[in-house]
What does this fold into?
Amino acid sequence: MSYQKRTDVSRETFSAPEDRSAGTPCAHESSAVDAATMEAELAAFKDPKLARGLIDSIQKLAPAGGATLMEVCGTHTVAIARNGIRNLMPEGIRLASGPGCPVCVTSNRDIDTVIALARTDNVTIATFGDMTRVPGSTSSLLKEQAAGRSVQIVYSPLDALARAQQNPDREIVFVGVGFETTTPLVAMAIKRAAAAGLENFTVFGAHKNMPGALEAIINDPKLKLDALILPGHVSTIIGAEPYRFLAEKYGIPGVITGFEPVDVLQGIAMIMRQLHEGRAEIEIAYARGVMPQGNPVAMAAIDEVFETCTALWRGLGEIPGSGYRIREKFAQFDAVRRFQPNIEPTQDPKGCRCGDVLRGIMAPNECPLFRRVCTPENPVGPCMVSSEGSCAAYYRYY
It folds into this structure.
């Protein structure tokens, strides 16, 4: 299978920028030229004229019988909502949001485990901000913080590592949530902790990989997908190869897409062309960010520290091979192994339909709790908490 990087829809628009570095008199001028070139290139991906041309192509190529496309990236979820792209689709073309938000797909059991760790003596939880507001069975990290537990927001696992070095008398537990995009940096933090002989740094690992979830979605009897808008950020790490099975095994086209309005529309137009021509391939529309082979160095870092395992996804259940756990070699940095927290019986929030939203079988505004009981100020489930959640995007933009 070939990985096409451009189509006739916008071949000239997305050609690589000319290399202007040769002959520049000094470094700062070269940097200024490069910055200006980059700014001009990025501006093209917001050009209304180009967007209109792509919308026309989508209209012409759309199957008469309609089609359901699913995006599986939280940033795409927000981009589609913010730019009104769903409303620009031809009749019968449905854009469904899938399990692309890492906070949203984190199971209640995992949330309850983190809360149990927060209640452990001498433990400080270091976490990304969204995770503090996700409700577990009976509490949240924000509530635990209000009750006097030590919960700190960090922006990187390396921040958590630094806090462990600065506070040798505290146990720092980093909450590792995310897909292949963030997992390499967590692997780096663990390797640095091992090299430094750090004994007060651990990770609660709830990392997941995207291909396993996609196969589960495709096999869901309640959902019929015709194509996938594939994630840009994840694909910078894993490349295009792990998606090959979508086309070869299931006949599902997929296009790796960027995040600007023209990016998303180009990806949809490429999918429409595949459907129109009866093809099923994995194509790359986001050529400025994704190589077919991905980032081998980042993947090697993941493989050194983590191994694949069965993971529990909100809405999808247990999926074999879809998670990452810390290898035995680095077991001393596994927070659950070290502290063995006492986890309360898990209960899903009453009436919450996040699982159905994440599977793409329900739009957020079809949930009875949406805007009535469940709001960003009073979230019932994680899809309303995360900035990349489908419910939060619908609440803000629809």
Q: What stands out?
A: DSSP finds 16 helices and eleven strands in the chain.
